[in-house]
Amino acid sequence: MAAGAALPALLLLVAAALCAGPADAALGVNWGTVSAHRAPPSVVVDLMRANRIGKVKLFDADAGVLRALAGSGIQVMVGLTNGELSTIAGSAAAADAWVQQNVSRYVGRGGVDIRYIAVGNEPFLTSYQDQFQSYIIPAMTNLQQSLVKANLASYVKLVVPCNADAYQSASVPSQGVFRTELTQIMTQLAAFLSSSGAPFVVNIYPFLSLYQNADFPQDYAFFDGSTHPLVDGPNTYYNAFDGNFDTLVSALSKIGYGQLPIAIGEIGWPTEGAPSANLTAARAFNQGLINRITSNKGTPLRPGVPPADVYLFSLLDEEQKSILPGNFERHWGIFSFDGQAKYPLNLGLGNPVLKSAKEVPYLPSRWCIANPARNLDSISDHMKLACSMADCTNLEYGGSCYGIGPKGNVSYAFNSYYQQQKQDPNSCDFGGLGMITYLDPSMGECHFLVGIDDSKSSAIASCSGPCCAVFWGITALGFWVFMYLRMMVSA
């Protein structure tokens, strides 16, 4: 090694020693940000590191999030949104600009370990009525060329997270096929993934199968065995995950790609918003899933071969997501919006239980409630206004605040809106029917939240600590040596 290269190499070895940790973990999380109560990205990154979570899947390429991930040692999947597909598909220059803006500048300057670009999010979903289908392959082609130009194609892979409705079976997994209208594009996609060494990414939700079908056996959704196993020739399926996974394996086999690696882009269980969504069920499902994956048992059609990666959905609750699918849509997190663990869970990454976030910049401890001195007969319009803006799904059947009574419902709605408005005193007026209190009005399992002061996010979202100091200080040449060493270690 030349003398001039010794110092960068030494710095890189120090960086590797400082930041070594969860990068090789098979389990990751989805980090969504559709919330009015966003914890600073640095707090969320610290939360993942404390729990030794080594992989994260993003739905976009948010600059603040990526800056916070610099030097963390966490492997990252960034997202190209469905709304960006047509532009990238139609312009090689636009693809070059996107890769430069959202990948190259972080990899080269900040040490963000970007491994995948998700090209769209469930773009083949039936409800989209083919509006994104024609963009996928052209977008991937342009992005691949952009990665080649940036000397990143051997390290950053393109994938397309697909909903499980892309394939189907008349009865048993061995009869799995892709939807007729998708057969051609799925063959093209599988060929692309195979040639680049990337996995087929699919989102599987046994909860939705149970939620949408009253005849679905409840125990079949979990991993403790079922009184209603599915027999498919020599194979017997005792849980919905294995059956769904092998249906995809069969569909891939029928187009000539039966050995293509499969990664699970989203899987999880919500904690409220439906009768089958609760803390007990969520813990049972996620722990059962983790135990199943870490056992390396595989499935009947792929024995001993677990998925390439598994990304839990999700890391945090997102109270501004659409509730068209159901009230549960805002409650998928293994942590609440502020990074507090909802239930004990062993991720199989070294900690026996989840560790909650620290140094969360909460707003002051005050709440907005219904004024007990006022007649609340005319409250309905105010409550509707509050719930149209803030999240009141906890009050619905299956929610943690269901049954707290009319006045409790009003207070919960008022406070949700008040916290969303960052405790603006005017937002607790409601025509004189609301009042601010410094006594926590929470009741039993019904927690009245205190919002997050996101004005502090920009000040603390930048990278900090010894890992970042080293990473931000290394040269671009040193970074590529570091990447080379990591790939050699992983090989």
From TrEMBL:
Q: Which GO terms describe its cellular component?
A: plasma membrane; side of membrane
- Record-linked SMART domains: X8 (SM00768)
The record's subcellular locations are: Cell membrane
The Gene Ontology terms for molecular function here are: glucan endo-1,3-beta-D-glucosidase activity
Q: GO biological process: any one? A: defense response
Annotated ranges, domain X8: 366-448
Is-annotated flag, keyword Lipid biosynthesis?
Answer: no
Indicate the family of this protein.
Belongs to the glycosyl hydrolase 17 family.
This protein's name: glucan endo-1,3-beta-D-glucosidase
